């Protein structure tokens, strides 16, 4: 019996998932349909087919993670893969082994897929060149987080049916956010009207994302929005010598209050968007900085826990689509 949602063949073209740009439009549709298919198993608490039985999945996270690491682990296990989480803090990386050597060592244990998170934007491409297994990006520097974008799209589809024609305002620290970049690229491909909203010093350089309009106030940026996506102010990614870096150094209680007053998403500011507009946030949240806790917890308006839910079936779909190509 076929478990496929859209036909008998897995015709996934992509061999890796480092960027949203690795996926064809058909790949994206396939993954989103397969995500909904696996979401059904999770909602019913039914065991999913063990499509990855016999496959080995290595999770190699050189940066902290809660949601992404654990949902990749759960996703692989639900599909029957043998999943290993490399305990980076207790591994030979701390004896001076390079990230590339650690990855090569893990790949030599007959890994079929390696899910990698790293501070460097380029590491995944280097690993894709030298490793015999599929490489999946679990978060790269400030550039890419493709599975976050796919799970965000899946959560939006589950609420609105489609992204086509939706106005989506991505708000806050766009400059240091890998989620903002991957979301903007994917949402636009799915027909959404995407805009960035935030202070000028937290916007990408002017030659980046030239096709995404920018607003420097919530009043302009949320006007007509169906969705406001809040982003964490990512202090750990601020270089200390730029404007944002000196802002991080100064970001005391008063600064947090000022930021919240100007750019915080709350029941008050969300009124600037379309009536009934939904709130999203990739997590982790700084409550009282970029988002008010009461809005984040609003059961009607907030899709934040829905995003977390979709993390598992989306990553099941990505792993299945990549590892069973052509079957
Ligand atoms: N969890 C997301 C990421 O890994 C967002 C964040 O860290 O703020 O990029």
Residue-averaged pLDDT: 92
Number of strands: 9
Bound molecules: aspartic acid
Distance between the termini: 13 Å
Low-confidence stretches: none
CATH topology-level fold name of the largest domain: Rossmann fold
Estimate what percentage of residues fall within beta strands: 5-15%
Helix content: 25-40%
Please state the CA-atom Rg, rounded to the nearest Å.
20 Å
Main sheet: which strands, in order across?
Answer: 7-6-5-8-9
Task: Using the alpha-carbon principal axes, give the shape.
Answer: globular
The profile of the biggest β sheet is:
5 strands, parallel
Order of helices and strands: HEHEHEHEHEHEEHEHHEHH
CATH class of the largest domain: Alpha Beta
Query: What class do helices, strands and sheet pairing give?
Result: alpha/beta
Structure annotation, total helices: 11
In the CATH hierarchy, the architecture of the largest domain is 3-Layer(aba) Sandwich
Topology (SSEs and partners):
Elements (H helix, E strand, L loop, with lengths): L24 H20 L11 E6 L5 H12 L3 E4 L13 H9 L5 E6 L4 H8 L3 E7 L5 H15 L6 E5 L6 H12 L3 E5 L16 E2 L2 H5 L4 E4 L12 H8 L2 H11 L14 E3 L12 H4 L7 H20 L4
Parallel strand pairs: 1-2, 1-3, 3-4, 5-6, 5-8, 6-7, 8-9
Aspartic acid binds next to helix 6.
Task: Describe, in short, the structure shown.
By secondary structure, the chain is α/β, with parallel strands linked by helices. It is 38% helix and 13% strand.
Descriptors:
327 residues; alpha/beta; Rossmann fold; 2 domains; four-stranded parallel sheet; globular
